[in-house]
Amino acid sequence: MRSTRWQAIGSVGLVDTAAPQAGPHDVVLDVEACGICGSDVHAFAEGAWISAGDPMGHEFAGTVSAVGPQVSTFAVGDRVAVNPMGPCGSCGQCAGGSSNLCANPAHSSFGGLGDQVLVAHAESGARLFRLPDTMSFEEGAFLEPLSVAVRAVRCADPDLAAPVVVAGLGSIGQCVVRVLRAYGASDVVGIDVSTPRLRVAAATGVDVLDAREGDVVAGLLDRWGTSDSPYQPGSGNVAAFFECSGAQPMINAATAVTRAGGTVALTGLSGHRPGVDLDTVVQKELRLRGTFAYTGDDATEAFRLLESGAVDVAPLVTHRIPLSRVDEAFAAQHATDGSVKVVVLPDRP
């Protein structure tokens, strides 16, 4: 079978490798759709968090092609979405309910950018979700980024009647916008520099700002007015700011426009070490809240939102590229002004 492997900065390629074999508690999937994540793009363009030869792809859905003898709830032919996180279940973080921070997630599933993938210990936790006939594999592949968004919104716990900003409208930011809207947020602004991403976000009913056109901070102050606190007069009035871009200008804007006592949820990876205005954070008593990945409960909630139709992810797919041209898929996802979500599909006759 073929598997996409990272080769070097700016270079990925397909290699032939042995097909996965299901152990007693495992499932093998034929991959039917796999999205390219922002972290995949950081790896592709910068070499972040990856080594030569590592398999790529963790946003995938597929058809069960083999099951281990101890697997009882899934069968060959089942259409499933995958939570690729495979925590150990026994470390301190897992015991404390933070399985997303597991010290040894040895059962995690990577390699979705390939013909097949192994899901180890498939019945432990919330790993596989059977797709209804009405849900496409492409939609199922959004389970992973939507789970990230669910966790971000749950951790930030924003006042849904107050002003909220989402900066960075890649797939995570788009999913955050959709989760907020599904939960009832009514006053949301999305920020990006990509015309197609701004357009797709605006279609959900939120207002958008193009960071290339004018001063973002000034625009948000003009929209929602200012607030005062000790040593921070004329501050912004945003209750919760979801920073999904990892871009320094948006991190600066987040601390500037979030009101005293507000929350800045840091969800976007940057690949470097950006600065933070600590004086403003301290003087406004801002709550900086990093959010990473998701738990099984977050994935379960994300699937509920997909299955119920409360969140529609289909409009996010702008490119469909066959696995044999996976290098083109990475180039397309890296070109942010021309793509929202690139999905890699099997080669069909």
Automatic annotation (TrEMBL):
The keyword RNA-binding does not apply. Keywords: Metal-binding, Oxidoreductase, Zinc. SUPFAM superfamilies: GroES-like, NAD(P)-binding Rossmann-fold domains. Residues 7-344 form the Enoyl reductase (ER) domain. GO terms for molecular function: oxidoreductase activity; zinc ion binding. It comes from Pseudonocardia sulfidoxydans NBRC 16205. PANTHER family: SORBITOL DEHYDROGENASE. This is Alcohol dehydrogenase.
